[in-house]
């Protein structure tokens, strides 16, 4: 059994804040945050409409594993295509919109 190593959360937070002073690291973190928020909105909308991943599979033919990867972001090396995202969004009764910042 491996012993637990105590972690100084305050130190971790200070190091993270320092890291974000690097413009490249900040840009990468911001991109990740946007992707995460988008994926959360997809999953939240699915749950709000009481639709299961299996039901999306039945409606679209997308493998349940792919649906899970879309929501969790574990498909990093192979992001879903726009066509796949549109199938997902249609299946949960939503639509994608583009708005000006």
What does this structure look like?
With 101 residues, the protein is mostly helical. The chain has one domain: Orthogonal Bundle (434 Repressor (Amino-terminal Domain)). It has helices at 9-19, 23-48, 53-60, 64-72, 82-91. The radius of gyration is 18 Å and the shape is extended. The mean pLDDT is 91.
Indicate the topology:
Layout: H1 9-19, H2 23-48, H3 53-60, H4 64-72, H5 82-91
DSSP E strands, number: 0
Level-1 CATH class name? Mainly Alpha
| Proportion of residues in extended strands | under 5%
Q: Name the shape in a single word.
A: extended
What count of structural domains?
1
Please state the average pLDDT score. 91
| Low-confidence runs | none
What CATH architecture would you give?
Orthogonal Bundle
Task: Give the structure's gist in a few sentences.
It is built from 5 helices and no strands.
